[in-house]
Amino acid sequence: MKARAVNKYIRQSAKKMKPMLDMVRGKQVNSVINMLAFMPKKAAKIVELTTRSAVSNLLNTEEGAKINPDELVIAEAYANQGPVMKRIRPRSMGRAYMIRKRTCHLTIVVATPEIAVENETKEKE
């Protein structure tokens, strides 16, 4: 059993989000939420909220009501680049520099441990 949560148009670049996701991927949900709650990074708060949403999505399904939330594992976690807002900063001698305000889309998939192991073996083959 697995469920996912998608958080779109986050005002942070995917490059800053990916190291946080590398720490989270493949771990149990309880330890991840506890770990992220005490991290000082902006990305940690966003990943924590999205993880909680994915767990809630799983528990709200009919089959998910029978699952113990303590056993859930983060099967997939990735951040894709979203649209870039372009702004202009005036510079000397009439020039203009482009400022790129990047966004990203965060996807987190939680699953029971058996399904998470099956997904890992398929990816390796």
Can you describe this structure?
With 125 residues, the protein is of the alpha+beta class. It has helices spanning 14-24, 29-37, 42-59, 113-124; strands at residues 2-10, 73-81, 85-90, 96-101, 104-111. 40% of the residues lie in helices and 30% in strands. Helix 2 packs antiparallel against helix 3. The protein has a single domain (2-124), classed as Alpha-Beta Complex (Ribosomal Protein L22, Chain A), CATH 3.90.470.10. The strands form 2 sheets. The protein has a 3-stranded antiparallel β-sheet with strand order 1-5-2. Strands 3-4 form a two-stranded antiparallel sheet. It contains 4 helices and 5 strands. Strand 3 and strand 4 (96-101) form a beta hairpin. The longest helix has 18 residues, at 42-59.
Key features?
about 120 residues, alpha+beta, Ribosomal Protein L22, Chain A, two-stranded antiparallel sheet, about 30% strand, elongated
Structure summary:
Helix content is 40%, strand content 30%. By secondary structure, it is of the alpha+beta class. The model has no long low-confidence stretch (mean pLDDT 91).
